[in-house]
Design a protein that fits this description.
Blueprint: H1 28-38, E1 43-47, E2 50-53, H2 54-70, E3 78-82, H3 87-98, E4 102-106, H4 112-122, E5 126-130, H5 131-136, E6 149-153, H6 164-167, E7 179-180, H7 181-188, E8 203-208, E9 218-222, H8 223-237, E10 245-246, H9 254-267, E11 271-273, H10 279-289, E12 293-296, H11 298-305, E13 320-323, H12 330-340, E14 344-350, E15 355-359, E16 379-380, E17 385-389, E18 402-407, H13 419-425, E19 431-439, E20 445-450, E21 455-457, E22 460-462, H14 464-472, E23 477-487, E24 491-500, H15 508-516, E25 527-530, H16 544-550
Length: about 550
Amino acid sequence: MTVYDEKPWLARYDQGQPAEITPEFDNALQMFRAAVDRNPDGDAIRYFDGRVTYAELDALTDAFAVGITANGFAPGERVAVFSQNVPQFLIAQIGTWKAGGIAVSINPMNKARELTELLTDSGATVLVCLQSLHRDVAAGVVPGTAVRQVITTSELEFQTRDEPRAFAGVERIECPGTTDLQQLLAEHRGATPPEVQLGPEDIAFLTYTSGTTGPPKGAMTTHRNVVFNAQTYRDWAGLGPEDVVLGVAPLFHITGLVAHIAIALLTATPLVLMYRLDPTLALDTIEAEGATFTVGSITVFIAMMNASNAEKGKLATLTKIYSGGAPVPPSTVGAFRDAFGQYIHNIYGLTETTSPSHGVPASAEAPVDQASGALSVGVPTYNTVVRIIGEDGQDLPVGEVGELVTAGPQVVAGYWNKPEETAKALPGGVLHTGDVGYMDAQGWFYIVDRKKDQINAGGYKIWPREVEDALYEHPAVREAAVVGVPDEYRGETVKAFVSLKPGAEATVQEIIAFTKERMAAYKYPRQVEILDEIPKTVSGKVLRRELRARG
């Protein structure tokens, strides 16, 4: 059997899992209400020493919906959420659905130009943001947009501990001309918003692509997409009411939206939030809260390994660990297990696939391709058909490298107000991912790299990921990123950027010699630059454009 048979996911090893699942809810709001009914007194959110139960979250989101509706918000309008990982994110997200609206999640690292672009593109009429982000960014942007109401809030709400690792230097700020979220919730507490009708194909949120390949595009993530992939995570990882979800991914990112918020709502379990990631705080929090499940970029787990309080027992309860969003070196998975005793399961997806389209089954470990050294991203998840195509658009044989093309109920409806981009990337509702990879004879998939990142050195084609995997084997290397840079003789040559582990030492010459011993002559990096940190997006993707600009 090959990937091109009618149901390629049947190539998956028999793990006792069904090939297909059926959505249990019509929309994400229905999913949340079922959680409230099942577990009203259980924790929905844990935020340092603060607790919000499902019943309390239901009341708070009712009040939010009533508050924005009273100010003229209408079904179908958009609410932009410009925030770190705080409880108010969920209040705005769920409250927006209760008002019949579409939530727009915005990266809190965005500056004025980027915020202007996203508010303009989405046409958001309400902006919910942290007080500091309003002061530093939003206050100068909002007057030129469609935003009618700005709701501000502090990251210090919903907790009293003021953990210094999270809140050093943070204070409440006055934001004239805005609505204070706590006042809005208090004013409308006890009120119930009008009933809204949300269908499976209605848009739940706009999730903007990271912009690593061009201007951000708003992926139209439907309620069906959200419900389906929440169920995928639950069934794939074997999650149940006894689990505790650790929110290490940013909530504005598709991983945070689905693998943290949606999965917690589906299973009626606690979601543990920490404002933003601090590895030492994360390790202490996992131990204190008994967190059992998380999904994060591999950089999160690298940071945990290098934290000052890294001890094996810290992760004793965290037995369901998945990593996606960035390539996972096999050597890092091994080092993590040595450090903490836990295995990191690879998972793969895009914004346009509402998080996972592939994953390593919970009872399996990902194989490593002996030729390339790549760690498999797994097998297609439920109801998902994946093809590998060549430059001519035709299917390629097993083992040959081409573009991944994905079809399934997790694929988004398209891009907001961008019909041409939608037609190009999603012809007929099938996603052309732009990622290059192959499937082996056993049905395991491997991602080689992004098409645009391939390096052509004197006619030799080099995939950065293969070089990066070799670099990660060096005992001093903490993180690595490889790009092609101009070269007079070869046209392009390989340049590596690395950061070192705390206390480790290595010279540029040593690193070059290390890779030269392990790779073909045309592949190893001719140039190496050692940085304190590799530049990345909040979701952990390497900013290769920034590295190329450094030369």
